[in-house]
Amino acid sequence: MLHLFQGRLSLSKSRAKARKMKLESQNENTIKFNAAPQKRRKHVNLIPKSLGQEKLILQLQDEGNHIVVAVGPAGTGKTYVAMQAAIKDFQEGVVNKIVLTRPAVGVEDEQHGFLPGDINKKMEPWTRPLLDVLKEHYHPREIVSMIDDGVIEISPLAYMRGRTFKNSWIVADEMQNATPAQVKMLCTRIGSYSKIAITGDVEQADKKGDNNGLLDLCLKLNANPKQGIAISEMTRKDIQRHPIIDTVLNLYQD
């Protein structure tokens, strides 16, 4: 009887050992998400690819410049360089917030219809080029978390009146579609330890008429330069996106 019991116990132990070995084998082929290495944040190196970009980077890094205006044709890297400078200062603790804004104007009055969701979702079609640069340095989940925490803010121009941004980097893109009054309002939102980068192409305004706020600002600065406000006027020689862009611009030149 004892011999039979010992035999059954030995069989039970053998089966348990076999199950354990099978589970261990399965676990070897299972992705352990908690143990997976975290994505390393890409460090920002502001390396110019043209003389125009070099001038812009120097202006953005100059502590004496509180507002920097970058104008020029498509593909010159105006928005990209401004966003990189903002991310660099954010990562290094120079500022604790990045504010993204663009005029909510469709190309040639293109209608997008009603956009559902909160203000971030509504502004996504216009801020996507800015968020694309952020995605080079942060995982999309990190960006969502930072937006929820308010360290990255998507703010339509219409919602900026009466506000003051402190310890912040404000990147205002496609500002040729803003009115002179909107550009003035934006520039007066700057608070202590903050910087504003205003970018756009005065030749690609989607608003009709002479209501081009970026052009108005450039004309004012060229006629009456002001300390603390810098302007970079980039040319087709600074185009980096693709060489064919210069050909396209020539094709559509009046």
Brief summary:
This protein has helices at 2-28, 51-61, 78-91, 119-134, 140-149, 180-187, 213-223, 244-251, and strands at 67-71, 97-101, 152-154, 168-172, 195-200, 229-233. It is an alpha/beta fold and 254 residues long. Helix 3 crosses helix 4.
Please, could you describe this protein's structure?
The chain is an alpha/beta fold. It has one domain: 3-Layer(aba) Sandwich (Rossmann fold). Helices cover 41% and strands 11% of the residues. It has 8 helices and 6 strands. Helix 3 packs across helix 4. It is globular and about 90 Å long. The termini are far apart.
Relevant terms:
single chain; 254 residues; alpha/beta; Rossmann fold; 8 helices; 41% helix; globular
The name CATH uses for the topology is: Rossmann fold
Q: Which residue ranges are poorly predicted, with pLDDT under 50 across at least 5 consecutive positions?
A: 28-40, 107-116
Count of discrete domains: 1
Radius of gyration equals 27 Å
Q: Percent helix among the residues?
A: 40-55%
* CATH arch. level architecture: 3-Layer(aba) Sandwich
H and E order: HHEHEHHEEHEHEH
Number of distinct helices: 8
Structural shape: globular
Roughly what fraction of the amino acids lie in strands?
5-15%
Largest β sheet strand count, sense and barrel closure: 6 strands, parallel
CATH class: Alpha Beta
Strand segment count: 6
Question: Distance between termini?
Answer: 105 Å
CATH superfamily: P-loop containing nucleotide triphosphate hydrolases
Give the integer mean of the pLDDT values: 80
